[in-house]
Design brief:
alpha+beta; Fructose-1,6-Bisphosphatase, Chain A, domain 1; 2 domains; eight-stranded mixed beta sheet; binds D-MYO-inositol-1-phosphate; binds calcium ion; inositol monophosphate 1-phosphatase activity; EC 3.1.3.25; hydrolase; Inositol_monophosphatase-like
Length: 277
Amino acid sequence: SALLNVMVQAAMKAGRGLIRDFGEVENLQVSMKGPADFVSNADRRAEEVIFQELSRARPDWGFLMEERGTVEGRDPQHRWIVDPLDGTTNFLHGLPMFAISIALERDGQLVAGVILNPAMDELFTAEKGGGAFLNDRRLRVAARKSLPESLFATGIPFLGQGDHAAALYEMRQIMGETSGIRRMGAAALDLAYVAAGRFDGYWERALRPWDVAAGAVLIREAGGFLSGMDGEKFDHMQGDVACGNEFMHKSLVEQLQQATLRRKAASATLSALPRRN
Ligand code: IPD
Ligand code: CA
Ligand code: CA
Ligand code: CA
């Protein structure tokens, strides 16, 4: 569609810039937004390109972008949600698992998503009601219905931005029930890979709208299911996501609840111990 075309053009143009910067990461200026939370001029340059391209194509629409924040548009109905470089840590280490993520919100609902991994030439696109695609191939979530054969992905929050203890309990739980866990370092790609059937499921806490918005459209259009950690309705403005095919999503939510019970039981046992003074 014309809309997806606008999003794809913006992503591709920013992607070419990212590839140039990726070729000389040692020359980038890098600063920290918090412990273990890096940003570089590659992130900002890519965001500027996307902002310019989308503003030119749809002058009245607003933005929610990772680095620039909110830009109000004259049209109150439409808003772009943009992560110009998802996987900055990978990028800065020369790992080719990074992406540009662009979603469109109409009246608060996600209606289109584009995720581009420019280093691997993989373009994921989806529009509400129109299906999800990887380049020209139609996507479908994995059909697997056996937890012991499944492969899950997760993410670990940056230091101080989420609960590492909870993440450890969750990983231990899923490790014991599945054939493995991957921590790829780019939430947008984790979601795109679930839509593509590469991962059976994925969960992560403490994410931001630009990490999940485009990926959520892909998952839904590929026939997958998403929710918060306890199975509550998915909300891209909240930070938590659990997803997979219908079976894997349900199983994942059950396993995450088990993990929470175990964590609470452990901390209750600890606090019941007599204190040494
Ligand atoms: C990060 C990545 C990472 C996830 C973090 C995100 P950024 O995004 O998606 O996989 O674990 O929570 O913030 O900062 O590289 O755009
Ligand atoms: Ca970041
Ligand atoms: Ca991100
Ligand atoms: Ca980012």
